[in-house]
Amino acid sequence: MANSQVLLADLKAGRCSNVAEVRLLRFWEAINVRKGGELMSVDMLFVDENSTLTQGSVGANRQLRFRDRLSEGSLYTLTGFDVTRSNTNFRLSDAPFSIWFNEGTKIEKIPASVRPIPTELFRFMPYSQILELANTGKQLPDIIGELNAIRSTITDRLPGAQRVMLTLRLESYGREPKVIIVTSVNPKIVGGRLFLNGTSCTHLYFDSETAAGKDLFDTLPGHGADPGSSTSKVVHAQKIEPMTISELNHFITTADSQIIEFLCTAKVTGIQLDDGWCYIGCSGCSKKLVREISSFTCASCNETNAVAALRYRVTLSVSENTDTASFLAFDMEMAKLTNIQASEAAQIVVDTELPRSLADIVGKTYTFQLKLNDFNFSSKHQTFTISLIFPERVFAPMSAFVVADGADVPVDAPPEVVAQPPNANVGTTSTVADNPTSSDASAAKRPPPAKDQDDVDKTAPKKAHVE
């Protein structure tokens, strides 16, 4: 007797002997980065005729049995699989259950189906919802947008498969894309800015490679090829020039106001404590909070009961030969340099106004990447803002980026992220029941799924000078 058909939405926990007819949208390797890139499973995303998305997985010990049968965009029948509850974190769908392949699972590729199974399905979300998901690790939405600029992450110090994936994908595409779809991103807010981190299941699609992308591509002037505009969106790489402190001081007094980056190697001679070494900032946007009687207010977020977080703001006195300057470092770079968060450093300040982790950098020489803006060329200029700190010269980057006149350049993104274009368009879920499409995008790494503030002003020791 033939097994009956089952829809993905009707799956129940346990072993399923019914037949599910689905399309394999994407598959990727799930890697445990904490164990040297150990393969945990091969994960998949299925869709059926009702546009129900369900994640499937096959363990590392069984993946060789099924791996060669997997083809993105193809139709399959599944039977004899296990149905388990979906992980509550890093979700790729709203389905309560996931599919696990076992020793008795059968997967058969079929050439066609009488059922109208979509050839693509994306979980696009409104911008406001993506903001709500930031830093929660709950959902991995998809995004679609028009590219404003393409900036390499060649200055990142840490190796990352995402950077390699994006570079190879752009090269294989053969031309400069106008529209991009990035799947399964992990939204994070860092320093008040939204970044969309790539994960192990992230795929890239350009221009008309998908129906959803084609719809947006066709709305652009000249169908994405505006003859009236020849400005490239690619931010080309060139060398970041090294400068001495003397040359920096001379440059800001003689050059026109501009945004530019330089490298400067200098010795830290002291830490200026006139304004302290930390401040109470908003946990969301990092801006300084206004202290009320019993709470903190964030003007930037329009929040009258903001969650506070202690953050670094350190002014370094530096010297090179006989020349001196003041370099200003903020939370992220100081935490990387000292390997300790500002809130933790404040707990161990005992007999001095300065944590030992900060005092220890005095007398050491670093290479600083400095980002100059219009303020540095004004009469109010007092410090140079640090964007990166390199403990040894060998780690200093050799590339900066120049964009053609009139093109916007996105802000620097942390290592291993995919930054959202400033004018990215987001919308609702897109489905198409047409010819199948596939992607040659390689999978990046993702963090393994997890299993099931106090007021910093009260906890910080009195010796910690806080604005």
TrEMBL record:
GO terms for molecular function: DNA binding; zinc ion binding. Residues 264-379 form the Replication factor A C-terminal domain. The lineage of its organism: Eukaryota, Viridiplantae, Streptophyta, Embryophyta, Tracheophyta. Residues 449-467 have a biased composition (Basic and acidic residues). PANTHER family: OS03G0429900 PROTEIN. Residues 413-467 are annotated as: Disordered. Residues 413-422 have a biased composition (Low complexity). This is Replication factor A C-terminal domain-containing protein.
